[in-house]
Amino acid sequence: MSSLVINTNLSAIQAYDNLTQTNNALDNAISQLSSGLAVQTAADNPAGYVTAEALQYQQVGYTQASANAQNGVSLIQTAEGALNQITSVLQTMDQLALNSANGATTDSTALSANQAEFSKLQNEINQIANTTSFGTTQLLSGTFTGQVLQVGAFDNSNQQITLSISGATASDLGIASSSVGTVAGAQTAIASVQAAINTVDAIEANVGALQNELQAVITNLQVGGQNLQAAHSAIVDTNFAKETTAFTTQNILMQSGVAVLSAAQQQPGLALKLLANV
User: Fold this and answer.
1) CA–CA separation, 152 vs 65, rounded Å?
2) Same domain membership, residue 261 and residue 231
3) What angle in degrees, to the nearest 10, is found between the helix axes of 10-35 and 240-265?
4) Residue 275 contacts by C-beta under 8 Å, 6 or more apart in sequence?
5) Does the reported pTM lie above 0.90?
6) What is the C-alpha to C-alpha distance for residues 86 and 94, in angstroms, rounded to an integer?
7) Can you give the residue range of the structural domain that contains 20?
């Protein structure tokens, strides 16, 4: 039989300790349910907190890298649009050269007119090449070489793509000195203009491949970002099914603990009954 003492109420102390633990557990459940977070500070889960922080900044890096790659796609599309215009101009120049080369039916007046238009088209190519830009960066003037695009969350060469786009001015295309003012000049210009068309086609093929590469990178980053978000959520987000159950359990224990503590605190009073007959 347990001793009946007054100065030290062990039952009440034990009930109080249990009630304190229950209260802490209940507070934790309430905190998780009200915030939606299982890990709010490093004290909640030191290792999990560190891992979650690393996942979070990596996810932010993926998001920005995806935006970088998308900007790269926009840049390339800008260059592609301008190259399409240059191709259209070159096709017109090819027609003029073929017309001027037909000496049997082309007189001097027609040759002069063809040459005037040909010269304007040469200038138009230069104008397109020298003014096509993304922001303030020229794309087709021959200066867009070795430009680094960051497409990853870390400073790693495997997460960087180097972009270069060949120049597309009349000089770059080898038609700056071409002329269709004479039959002989036109015959030479035919080969030069058609070679320029092939050069522009090659430039377009290169930027098209770059665009496909960037689209693949964007898709990969989006999938990776989603996986990182899921991993982060698994660590820090509250499992509501689990915590709701814990809250219900601790709430019941809290109420019963209060009742038991109240009863335990009454035990020393039993000593008075022993003294009643003294």
Assistant:
1) 5
2) no
3) 160
4) none
5) no
6) 12
7) 10-36+240-275
